[in-house]
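Researcher: Let's run the pair from yesterday's discussion. Sequence first, then tokens, for each.
Model: Starting with the first of the pair.
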Amino acid sequence: MVKITRVYTGGGDEGESSLVDGSRRMKSDARFEVVGTCDELNSWLGMILMEIERLPDHEDGGERTNVQRVQTVLREAIGRLQHELFDLGAELACPPEELPEYMALLGQHQADVLVDEMDAWLASLPDLTSFILPAGSGPIASIHLARTVARRLERNIVTLSQSEGDGSVRPLAMVYVNRISDWLFVLGRWTGNMLNEQETLWLPLGKRPSENGVAHRIHQMQANDDDFADL
């Protein structure tokens, strides 16, 4: 049982901090960058949960059943993932050979569960005909942002592996993080589909109409304001 009696220690006042094994490194170290990004991703998952709780469950006097389904699925799935990311962060806060023997590590099962969930969500989704822009209502936009942080976490793990050499990160940790970014992408699509939101598809430059910006709209708004002021 973890017992925390004091958060502040002063031990990091000079830019150093401790790994799980007690060794000290600068806070700019690649391993701390990985741990920090893992924490950042976990925090964005908390933002997603906040956003789904803010969804209105009634519209035009009728109950929105799909909102309740989205809330049920995301509460369970993201809640589980938050615990797993905390496990992962603890693991990555130390070279594998220095991990305490009592520490339970994520296994292939956790990665397989992510794949099973993706397959279940994909079964009800239409095929993609283009890339998707990161847009949508609060929950979906937050999922997109979490996905990009998951990709950054993956890049940071690669950087750590390159800087410290083979064996500095368990291969399964990399596999698991790679699954998370895909999982979030599919989750975002499924959530949007359940909430009847249209996906914002990317249109290649050659197929987009000529874009002259919004300056003319701003000028028109100002002209309208001036006309109103003259009344």
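Model: Moving on to the second of the pair.
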Amino acid sequence: MSIPSALVLFSGGQDSTVCLAKTLDRYDRVETVGFAYGQRHEVELETRLRLLADLRQSFPEWSGRLGADHVLALPTLGRISETSLTREVAIEIETGGLPNTFVPGRNLLFFTYAAALAYRRGITTLVGGMCETDYSGYPDCRNDTLQTLADALSLGMDRAFTIETPLMYVDKAGTWALAERIGGATLVDLIIEGTHTCYLGDRKHRHVWGYGCGTCPACDLRAKGWDTWQTVKRSAATY
């Protein structure tokens, strides 16, 4: 009998950390994969390793389930994408309505590489933190995109892959709440202190919700989600 296992796309950000925690709660064996693609905020490659160590220490019950971590290099993606996430240019909205933080094909490549890795590791479940509830309109974050990709991967590798996205219809306030339900205040504190989401790679400025510039789209979503979650918690406490 095979051991239920999953491979989590783990960037070290808030969303992927919550997804990893949820996956560790559900699967007996969980591996992680990160990607070095020339991202401007490559500090995430350092923070993700500390996060994995902190998760093991803070949640001993998960430590035995948390297996190998992998980092795959995709430098060509950064060179051809010409976005504000891969070069020093201001973040802005482009003519087509998408922000120039959109890296064309990024999630498609991430899942394809993850599936190739998972194939050799005997894993068929891939997990990502993509969300189409409150996001920047990235077309490769949509559920239809990812489930179509899962079908293509299954056909192309002749193995039944599934792509799970636990946060697909959860807003950022809900993501904070989910973190608390899974791991209590310990996980919430770990997310505040240890995760990195800021597009500009800012680890100098500490806010109540964590580190970041406080102005980029990722920081803005995270801060608004925190504020909404805190408001809901205060309202609930009065009843």
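Researcher: Give me one sentence on the second I can quote.
Model: The mean pLDDT is 86.
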